[in-house]
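Q: Given only this backbone (265 positions), what sequence would you predict?
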């Protein structure tokens, strides 16, 4: 084997490994052995075609990423729009949903959960009470008086109604389970399924802490909201039976250090 053939083979082996250097081009010049020149030209042409395809592929990937971003943005807008529909019936619920979503997101971030997990927990926060949209007007009358048994059983149905409304929205992923289980309690006395401890999805346990905290600290027409420390006391009292104690501890630390102001989405 001549030295030139040996060098060309080495270059071809490097090209096969993805090293598209221009070394092959020097064998396309006049004066080279005719066979070597034809091989070098064919390989040079092949490299140009491969590079053009790679360039087009990169363009397509860029377009797909852009499209994916737009789809995600639209999905988030759709989620907010659904929540607004409930807000039109009950003003408190809309603000409550945004706050619960943000508290839940903060708690999820503190736990070091992945970006996707944090996103789905936020989504669940926004949508967790959407099942209330089917409530009768009586339930929305914010009088503060004790609910009758009839109204109370209607209220207890909202997680199941949430499931019925959202079950076909594939893009909300695990957020559906989190939303449906946000009234489950650690001791199994919650609803709708009476799940216990770790049977309750982590996202739902996070939501439960945020949901309770916001309900306690929000001023309603019939009572003033409690301050942060009073709310922490209540969370401490209901942890163990109702709320996950480790989540309560992380949540209290986060809110104490960074305040109740919500973070940007
Ligand atoms: Fe709820």
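A: Predicted residues:
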């Amino acid at each position: 084997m001549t030295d030139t053939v040996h060098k060309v083979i080495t270059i071809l082996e490097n090209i096969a490994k993805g090293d598209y250097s221009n070394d092959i081009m020097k064998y396309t010049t006049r004066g080279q052995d005719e066979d070597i020149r034809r091989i070098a030209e064919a390989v040079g042409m092949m490299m140009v075609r491969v590079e053009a395809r790679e360039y087009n592929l990169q363009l397509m990937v860029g377009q797909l990423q852009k499209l994916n971003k737009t789809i995600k943005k639209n999905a988030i807008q759709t989620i907010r729009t659904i929540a607004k529909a409930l807000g039109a019936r009950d003003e408190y619920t809309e603000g409550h949903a945004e706050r619960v979503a943000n508290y839940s997101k903060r708690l999820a971030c503190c736990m070091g959960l992945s970006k996707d997990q944090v996103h789905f927990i936020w989504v669940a926060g926004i949508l967790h009470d959407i099942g209330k949209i089917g409530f009768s007007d009586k339930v929305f009358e914010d009088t503060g008086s004790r609910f009758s048994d009839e109204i109370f059983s209607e209220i207890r149905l909202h997680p199941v109604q949430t499931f019925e409304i959202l079950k076909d929205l594939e893009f909300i992923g695990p957020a559906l389970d989190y939303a449906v289980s946000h009234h489950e309690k650690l001791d199994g006395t919650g609803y709708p399924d009476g799940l216990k401890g770790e049977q309750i999805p982590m996202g739902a346990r996070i939501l439960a802490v945020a949901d309770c905290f916001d309900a306690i600290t929000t001023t309603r027409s019939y009572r003033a909201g409690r301050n942060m420390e009073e709310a922490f006391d209540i969370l401490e009292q209901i942890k163990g039976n109702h709320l996950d104690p480790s989540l309560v501890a992380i949540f209290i630390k986060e809110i104490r250090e960074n305040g109740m102001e919500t973070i940007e989405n």
